[in-house]
Amino acid sequence: MEQELNIIENNRLDKLKKLKESGINPFANDFEKKENIKNIIEKYGDKDKVFFENSKTDVAAAGRIIIIRSFGKASFLRLRDGFGEIQCYIQKDAVDEKYFELFSEYVDIGDICGVRGHLFRTKTDELTIKIEHIEILTKSIMPLPEKWHGLKDIEARFRKRYVDLIASAEVREIFRKRAEIINFIRSFLNSYNFLEVETPVMQANPGGATARPFKTHHNALNLELYMRIAPELYLKRLVVGGFDRVYEIGRNFRNEGISVKHNPEFTMLEFYMAYATYEHLMDFVEKMLSELANLVCGSFEVEYGSEKLNFKPPFRRIKLKESLSEIGGFNPNEIDSSEKVYNILKSKNTAGISKTDSLGELLTLLFDETVESKLINPTFVTDYPVESSPLARRNDRDGSVVDRFELFIAGREIGNAFSELNDPLDQEERFKLQVEAKAKEGLPVEMDDDYIEALKQGLPPTAGCGIGIDRVVMLMTNSHSIRDVILFPLLKPLK
User: Fold this and answer.
1) Spatial separation of the C-alpha atoms in residues 12 and 110, rounded to whole Å
2) Count of CB atoms situated within 10 Å of the CB of 494
């Protein structure tokens, strides 16, 4: 295969050399593309043969040649730009000899060309450009994937995403849908008077979530910095400053494992609404995601693998402890002490547990182990233990839990939200516990004294939510690896 590739590449390099020697620029930049192929099809797609026979319709199009079918003195080719595809036809006796010679001698599948001509319909009634002028705009040195079969290797698809996109309409559609999803979310939030903002990606204190950060160094300030694991604390500072509704769609970075659900660099939506509770946000998120499913998939029912996910409101709501009984199958008496829950987790070989962990921490781990994967249709899980929620507001009726929900779909977490803790004294105490816990794990964290100062200025009653954009895209495009929905996922370099 490698030898075949070398032969093809050398042959094309030879053509490149001959083009230059004959005075033809194989990387020309002076072709005037008047409109994209989609526009041509939309404008003339409903016209019949008689229309084109009675009126010459001149067009100019440019794109990559993806198919060539030659019949000696005539050829059909398929031209694709970033918006659509159209068939073209070139005939030796109907075009200037120099253009036919250029095409027959030097044009290959994969070349980017500009064509001018007029539209007609073939015997099979296909809308086609009859070429009167053709020029090479970019000579392709490497063949398209059909010639070298590299895209049968899944990892090759991610390493050479540009080839993957050329080869696969399905892959291109995933990323068009991704853009559509983000545009919808942005428009939805804007329609509710949210303000889109940008907060620092490099932070002196990696707060706002529990995760291992990436570390970097600022030379001029001689300062250790961290790539953000979440924008949360900065967004809440803005609510303190008087922006009642803010959101950010941006990259977060977590120096942890890679899996079908995790990429170290990922896209998150975080938004905050003053004078609202986590219960308000359940209604809000439910409305946003149900409308999104209906727009992108054309229905509240979304196919995901062998499942049909039902996004029709209302979504199921269940408390964490109740889910352990109703879904996990545990009798409440089995899980009413940290010792009992620890022993259950130990029997399941759960990593990272300790006898010193609180009951709340262990119950959260038990939920992760036994319930999460069973939550297929959209489900809000509420009433998380306070120990596992250092930034959430305590519930007024039960101080052992917080006003928080996590949204699960297809057995994985999609979003996390809570009524924000706005008591600076309570927050300071929880920060101290968080610092101690992270220090035991060897994670870099310090007290965020400035955030405490911000809370002392007064954070209004506020609810905030974070939603994993990549995971939403996975659901809406029936993709089962996060790498399928990230254009350039992180990969170990080839040696």
Assistant:
1) 11
2) 6
Q: Nearest-CA neighbor of 184 among 488, 467, 489, 490?
A: 467
Instruction: Report the amino acid identity of residue 245.
Output: R
User: Residues 72, 103: contact at Cβ < 8 Å?
Assistant: no
Q: How far apart are CA 48 and CA 53, in angstroms?
A: 9
Q: At 39, list the tokens.
A: 């526009």
Q: Which residues, in sequence order, are bridge partners of residue 114?
A: 62, 135
Token pair 């790498």 is found at 483
Rounded to an integer, what distance in angstroms lies between the CA atom of residue 369 and that of residue 350?
8
CB 32 within 8 A of CB 135: no
* Residue 5: per-residue pLDDT: 82
Please name the amino acid found at residue 364: T
* Strand ranges of the sheet holding 215-218, from the earlier edge strand across to the other edge: 202-203, 223-227, 215-218
pLDDT, position 6: 86
Residues 6+ apart with CB under 8 A from 409: 309, 375, 376, 377, 378, 379, 475
Q: Classify residue 391 by its DSSP letter.
A: T
The residues of the chain scoring below 70 in pLDDT are: 1, 146-152, 208-209, 443-445
Exposure letters 313-348 (e unless 16+ CB within 10 A, then b): eebeebbbbebbbebbebeeeebeebeebbebbeee
- Cα separation of 207 and 435, whole Å? 10
Distance CA 314, CA 43 (A): 43
H or E element that contains 347: helix 338-347
- Asked if 386 and 402 count as a contact pair (C-beta separation under 8 A), the reply is yes
Contact between 66 and 80 under an 8 Å Cβ cutoff? The reply is: yes
How far apart are the C-alpha atoms of 339 and 355, rounded to whole Å? 7
Q: Are 171 and 165 in contact (CB under 8 A)?
A: yes
pLDDT at 389: 85
pLDDT tens for residues 127-142?
A: 999 999 999 999 999 9
Structure tokens, 320 = 């964490």
Rounded-to-integer distance, Cα 44 and Cα 61, Å: 14
* Domains in the chain with CATH codes: 2-148 (2.40.50.140), 166-328+371-484 (3.30.930.10)
As given in the structure block, the two tokens for residue 283 are: 């209604």
Q: How far apart are CA 390 and CA 434, in angstroms?
A: 7
pLDDT at residue 155 in the model = 81
**Angle 46-47-53 (CA atoms, 0-180°, nearest 5)?**
165
Q: What is the pLDDT of residue 444?
A: 66
